[in-house]
Design goal:
Largest sheet of chain B: 6 strands, parallel
CATH class of chain B: Alpha Beta
CATH topology of the domain at 47-282 in chain A: Rossmann fold
Strand order of the largest sheet of chain B: 1-12-7-4-2-3
Low-confidence stretches of chain B: 1-6, 197-204
Largest interface: A-B, 69 and 47 residues
Number of strands of chain A: 22
Oligomer: heterodimer
Distance between the termini of chain B: 6 Å
Strand order of the largest sheet of chain A: 1-10-7-4-2-3
Number of strands of chain B: 12
CATH superfamily of the domain at 47-282 in chain A: NagB/RpiA/CoA transferase-like
CATH class of the domain at 47-282 in chain A: Alpha Beta
Low-confidence stretches of chain A: none
Shape of chain A: elongated
Number of helices of chain A: 36
CATH architecture of the domain at 47-282 in chain A: 3-Layer(aba) Sandwich
């Protein structure tokens, strides 16, 4: 997979096209949704789809019965082979040879074109992008724009080769040729094959949405129409199909509506067959943890907002469906093996979910799939060793990190690893990696503050002034071993504002490296370790400086849902706060009292994915910084992933660096001389580029106002 | 029989429809009466070199009057359309049953391929619509779509409902919007905006 990402990143046109697409799509979508309440429409559509999935058997029977009344022959295909076999039989019985098709992801899923071509059928794609891809013997790289990866010149060469003459390389001439050329095919075809965007149980009609008009030609002109429809596309009523339409178009192409929407109930002057395909869908419907995957309306909004897709395009994923959603469903449609590579490309940023018109929790589906992969196929040996032997054992884990902090000295300079050992040369694109702190946070604190054994071994930092509450501090690995100074500053702030701070010594990793990869048993073990470390601490709240850790801890109740730890996990998770969240919402600190001055002319703020999308705590840092007198200038795409995502950066360093470059461009465009964030992982990534731009944890900036 | 009734929202819906249709590259013409509508269509056809107009609409009631006026304006109307016949003409005309103001969409309730062909085969699609048939949103015609389809499938007859918003388009090559791919290259919508007080009780 890494080699594929590097190849894509070296394709300058692809990168430029995707970048231009990203901006254009965002603007168009915002305009198309400008008069709509997206949240309400999304919730309504999600409810419609979930209800339809819950009743998919009844709806299938109702749809088949009503379609039959319109003279349509309805078939049920249990899998891809079955679907292909049914379609071949229909074509053979009708004596069809030439087939025109309009774009259908399901036909791609069942590999229909290859199967038909192998049996001597002539299959012609008629969507312009699909036709170009077919002429090139290529694969679509986007659900809605299949040829987005090709330049106009490359397309011109392809079409001129087909035309056997020069056409000129201007796009209108190429489109005009395609119109004239494919007209012949529409008129002479024996059959037309389409997909459907919805199938309506109450009427037996299907809804087909296109822009080019090829869908109308394919369904009208040939004497035989075959619609290939996924089982999940059946909705109860026309109103439900219109609800799909209302969000499909804005989310797919940024249009309020596509040029042509057809509700088709039977075939004029010919025959119609509808092949409803299961191919793993009923298995998904029966799995409560994965069921919502069937809500997908194939708009591609998840891809259009995915930092990985927008960096490398769709071919890298290798399958028919792309992005996190595509990688997750691949396990059902094509088997678990098909999901292994592409699933590793998900950063877990959740931008897909934010923009999904059906509100599918795609990162959760990705996690479910990763769990399945680990359960069925295991982990690569190195990762298995690190997670199961080292991370699981806190003492060993911390001893190794401490040893590494001593051994790294020949390679470090001023806090950064400057001379990368040969074994790490592949990671040089990650830029300047920070050295491990020579003394981790707990050691530093132990030399300053008292250590007690009242419940578990812990460091106690007294409240300054009147004590308001007693809080715990969860450091997380990065603050403990890389940025201990941030931990000290957070503790300083807490003590200053009247908190007695308890720092249990035996706390360990939050578990996210394990849960991210799908090794849930290790994640559960370290979660139990943290519950034990804080047991009896009797704190009102637990504060962390790491949004990722806070997010992981919020997930402990689900992680430990079965067994004796359930109540403790809920209790622990209910107490966790990020520092800004806590200062703002719990302590209600008014930082305007401390706004004496800052050395930064302007700062900007990077939303960590976990803080914004998993914890919904992104307004608090801004509120504090503004109150403290910082000139906060918003960057474009402040909530776009920086590309770190933990192990992702080390699995795909070049891709991670590419995503970071976009982030740095957005930051630099603001003119700010400092970027603030609340995630040490993001901070590490943002600092890796060096230069004059400062990157700081929000708590550091606030601390400087009080103590510097 | 659909009675035309005064509708306080009609000017707002008409204005919204016009703007939304223009935003998707349709030309929109509004006429206050049949005579004026026929003149507008005649003028448009003259300007575009269209002398014969293949038509697929029910020439009864108010649209019957329009057909007579168009013929009176010197246009030849062609009926009994086939695909091959339409291939030889530059324009086709049909009537939309509804308009949708939010999106500038035309709604056609169709029972034969012939009714579709004016909007699929020639490069210029011409549509007539009455302003009283404009609805706010697509969700507002769900019942009409259902009723139409159920009526036909109950008798075993195929049918379809087409929602058309602007001419055909693609952005498949370098995301450059190009109008006119497999469907019409242009869409002209002629709206009859009768004075509700005068036309109340008129029917189609």
């Amino acid at each position: 997979m890494r080699r594929r990402t590097i190849q894509a990143l070296n394709d300058a046109f692809l990168c430029k096209a995707l970048e231009s697409f990203a901006q254009g799509y965002r603007d168009a979508r915002a305009e198309a949704l400008s008069n709509k309440d997206f949240g309400t429409l999304r919730d309504e559509l999600q409810a419609i789809k979930l209800d339809a999935i819950a009743h998919y058997r009844d709806l299938w029977l109702q749809f088949a019965g009503n379609a039959a009344k319109a003279g349509i022959t309805v078939h049920f295909a249990k899998d891809a082979d079955d679907a292909v076999s049914i379609i071949k039989s229909i074509l053979t019985d009708a004596g069809a040879h030439k087939i025109v098709k309009s774009k259908s992801m399901l036909c791609e899923e069942i590999r229909l074109n290859d199967a038909l071509a192998a049996d001597g059928f002539e299959v012609i794609e008629t969507d312009l992008g699909e036709w170009i891809v077919q002429l090139d013997k290529d694969r679509p790289s986007h659900m809605v724009m299949p040829a987005i990866h090709k330049t106009a010149d490359a397309v011109a060469n392809t079409i001129e080769h087909e035309a056997q003459r020069e056409l000129g390389h201007d796009i209108p001439s190429l489109v005009a040729y395609a119109r004239q050329r494919l007209r012949r095919e529409f008129y002479s075809a024996d059959a037309g094959i389409t997909g459907a965007n919805a199938a309506i149980a109450s009427t037996g009609a299907i809804m087909v949405v296109t822009n080019e008009g090829n869908g109308r030609m394919v369904t009208i002109e040939p004497p035989l129409h075959i619609a290939v429809v996924g089982l999940e596309k059946i909705v109860p009523t026309t109103s439900d199909a219109l609800a799909v339409l209302e969000l499909l178009c804005p989310c797919a192409t940024g249009q309020k509506i596509s040029s042509y929407v057809s509700f088709i109930a039977g075939k004029f002057d010919g025959t119609q067959h509808i092949v409803v395909v299961d191919n793993g869908r009923s298995a998904i419907a029966e799995n409560p943890a994965f069921r919502e995957a069937l809500c997908c309306i194939r708009c591609g909004a998840c891809l259009n907002n995915c930092p990985v897709y927008l960096a490398v395009g769709g071919h890298v994923f290798g399958g028919v469906y792309m992005g996190g959603m595509g990688s997750a469903v691949a396990a059902y449609h094509e088997g678990i093996e098909a999901a292994v590579g592409p699933i590793s490309l998900c950063t877990g940023c959740a931008a897909c979910t934010d923009n999904c018109p059906v509100g599918i929790d795609i990162p959760n589906l990705v996690s479910e799939t990763r769990r399945r992969i680990v359960a069925e196929k295991g982990l690569p040996p190195v990762k298995a060793f690190i997670l199961r032997r080292i991370l699981r054992n806190r003492k060993l884990f911390h001893t190794i990190l401490k040893a590494a902090s001593h051994l790294q000295s020949p390679f470090t300079h001023e806090g950064y690893i400057r001379h990368i050992p040969l074994s790490l040369a592949g990671y040089k694109s990650l830029g300047a990696l920070p050295a491990l702190a020579t003394r981790p946070l707990r050691e530093r604190l132990q030399s300053t503050y008292s250590v007690g054994q009242a419940f578990q071994p812990a460091i106690f930092v007294g409240a300054r002034g009147e004590k308001r509450m007693r809080v715990g501090f969860f450091s997380g690995c990065l603050i403990d071993f890389v940025y201990p100074e941030i931990g000290e500053k957070i503790i300083d702030l807490l003590a200053h504002f009247g908190c007695e701070v308890v720092i249990p010594i035996e706390q360990t990793c939050c578990g996210i490296p394990a849960s991210h990869i799908g090794e849930m048993s290790v994640a559960a073990e370290v979660a139990k370790g943290n519950l034990a470390a804080f047991a009896g601490a009797d704190v009102d709240a637990i504060i962390t400086g790491c949004a990722t850790c806070a997010s992981a801890i919020k997930g402990y109740p689900e992680l430990l849902a079965t067994g004796p730890y359930q109540d403790d996990a809920k209790h622990f998770a209910s107490k966790i706060y990020c520092i800004c969240d806590f200062l703002s919402d719990v302590l209600s600190i008014d930082f305007s009292k401390y706004s004496a001055g800052t050395s930064y002319a302007a700062i900007t703020y990077h939303d960590s994915c976990h803080l914004k999308r998993h914890l919904a705590a992104h307004t608090q840092p801004r509120k504090l910084l503004r109150a403290a007198g910082f000139n906060l200038v918003e960057m474009s795409g402040s909530d776009r992933c920086c590309g770190f995502a933990g192990t992702f950066a080390f699995d795909y360093p070049e891709l991670s660096a590419h995503i970071l470059t976009h982030k740095m461009d957005s930051i630099n465009a603001t003119g700010a001389n400092c970027v603030a964030t609340d995630c040490p992982g993001c901070l590490m990534h943002l600092r890796s580029r060096g230069g004059t731009l400062q990157a700081a944890h929000t708590a550091e900036l606030l601390w400087e106002l009080l103590f510097a | 029989m659909v009675n035309v009734s005064p509708n306080a929202d009609r000017p707002i819906l008409l204005d919204s429809f016009k703007k939304a249709a223009q935003a998707v590259d349709a030309d929109v013409f509004i006429s206050m009466g049949i005579r004026e509508l026929a003149d507008e269509i005649g003028s448009f056809c003259n300007k575009n070199g269209i002398g014969t107009l293949p038509c697929a609409f029910q020439e009864t009631g108010i649209w019957g009057e329009l057909a007579s006026s168009l013929i009176g304006n010197g246009l030849a109307l062609l009926h009994d359309l086939t695909r091959d016949l339409l291939d030889d003409y530059d324009a086709g005309l049909n009537a939309a049953t509804f308009g949708i103001a939010d999106t500038g969409t035309l709604v056609f309730l169709e029972t034969s391929a012939m009714e579709l062909h004016p909007g699929t085969i020639p490069p210029q699609h011409i549509v007539i619509l009455r302003s009283c048939d404009i609805r706010q949103s697509a969700s507002g015609i769900a019942d009409e779509i259902d009723a139409f389809i159920l009526e036909h499938i109950s008798t075993g007859k195929p049918c379809r409902v087409s929602l058309v918003s602007g001419p055909s388009r693609t952005a498949d090559i370098e995301r450059t919007l190009t109008v006119g791919v497999h469907g019409p290259k242009a869409l002209a919508i002629f709206i009859l905006d009768e004075n509700p007080q005068i036309s109340e009780g008129a029917s189609v």
